[in-house]
Design goal:
The structure holds two protein chains of two kinds.
Chain A lengths: L1 H17 L7 E3 L5 E3 L1 H50 L10 E5 L10 H13 L5 E6 L1 H7 L7 E5 L9 H12 L5 E11 L2 E10 L1 H9 L9 E3 L3 H79 L1
Parallel strand pairs in A: 3-4, 3-6, 4-5
Antiparallel strand pairs in A: 1-2, 6-7
Helix pairs in contact in A: 1-2, 1-7, 2-7, 3-4, 5-7, 6-7
Chain B lengths: L1 H38 L28 E7 L2 E9 L1 E6 L2 E5 L6 E5 L2 E6 L5 E6 L2 E5 L4 E6 L2 E3 L5 H16 L4 H20 L3
Parallel strand pairs in B: 1-9
Antiparallel strand pairs in B: 1-2, 3-4, 3-6, 5-8, 6-7, 7-10, 8-9
Helix pairs in contact in B: 2-3
The chains are: A alpha/beta, B alpha+beta.
Chain lengths: 310, 199
Amino acid sequence: MASNGFQRTSALLRTLRNSNVTSAPVTFTPSGTRSVSLQIVQQRMKSVGNIQKITAAMKMVAASRLKGAQTRMEKSRGLVVPLIRMLGDLPGIVTDTTMVVPVSSDKGLCGGINTTVVKYSKVVAGLEPKTTMTIVGEKARAQLGKGNSDKVNGTIVDLSKIPMTFATASMVADTILAEGAQKHQIVFNKFQSVISFRPTVATVYSSDEYEKAAEAGQIKFDEYEMEGPERSEFLLDLAEFNMGVVMYNALLENSTSELGSRMQSMENSTKNAKDMLGKLTLLYNRTRQASITTELIEIISGASALEAKK
Amino acid sequence: ALGAVSSTTATRAFGTSAMRATEAQKESIASFMSAFEAVKPSTMDNPSTPSAFMKPLPEVPATPPAKLTLNFYVPHNIEFDGAEVDQVQVPATSGDMGVLPGHVPTVVQMRPGVVAVTLNDKEVQKYFVSSGFAFVHADSTTDICAVEAVPVEQLDAEAVKKGLADYQAKLVNAKDDYEKASAQIGIEVCGAMNSALGN
């Protein structure tokens, strides 16, 4: 909606410069030159002015929510570390069934982060033959639903409408684990700063795969004494907990990245709208002055014709 | 003297396995990245993996250090991050467990109960945890990962007693296994909170 208005308005400006045929209604003055209707320019100015106000407001909303989201995200980063230390970060193990989980936002106008996640998810899904997807977020669903619908197991949307707690993330984790894949690769944007987001792939295995990795010495689990249930149950609990923690962190990182990216893109939109409004104001003034001049010429030539007749 | 020798060899053995696991991690990431590069479009960068954002792990010391390094995390908060403490007591499912520097590496599953952190000779901070895991590593770093943790002072005795009575009533009226299980969990947690408050 915003870009369409810009495109139409910049087409209008190009028209005036190149004097090409345009779709805007064109009037002919008595001297034969073409001019753009004043009303059209006024309408364009009003709509661009509205766009500027809306995008400025959206930027402020995103900025005010960013600080809170960033604090929550930073606190969620703590719990990820001991689980990586215990269960490893091993994206390269080849398994029979892999599930890719792209994490995206529900709302748009947030720049390129969702397209980035979708691109990386497509590449990761192409690494092994039997890959399925569980999509989180409306935007990835819209982009992936068309070409890859045979791979998509399920979609989880509208998470932005409920408060993001560990309980919610556990629910998401349960839904993903219920599909029974041996390897899960979660693709999300990791928040580096307000202007920089890093596409990241986190890997969580089923408890069977963790058992195999422990036996192979890829993770150190077998070097530890166990206080709790026996080994398989322990690893099952750990795998489920790991999934919940990774999902919670991924969802918070992605939503903070969404806010930062939205701030950036709304800032750009506001700047563009402001520039466009400046150009349109100049165009409006020139057009207004031209029409006044034309009227004056008509009046004067009419008066002088009458005088000459006398 | 014999004890000192065996503990040194033990820590050296754990040091090697720690190196093996880190090598395995590097190899796994490298193989993933090369598989990724084979399929990706040329303009795309490689993605990151979570371990890229972690601080490198410290060396395993030859002798046990004087203090325990404690990391205590819940999903929504970081209670302790690299704090130097004297000892920690965790409520394992198999009973309460005290952790001192030089403790044998252990993975612990925690039941609802109290984690007591002895900061120094005088200060002990007690947290009620709903459950979770604790990892005691060879370099005397202890990671406590709880789902929920509150300082014991913040527990409301009246609310706990009421909760216990509620869940006991729910257990009696439970219609299926799910309701029974959730009522039993409620009773266990409220009972643990009650004993944490000293009742």
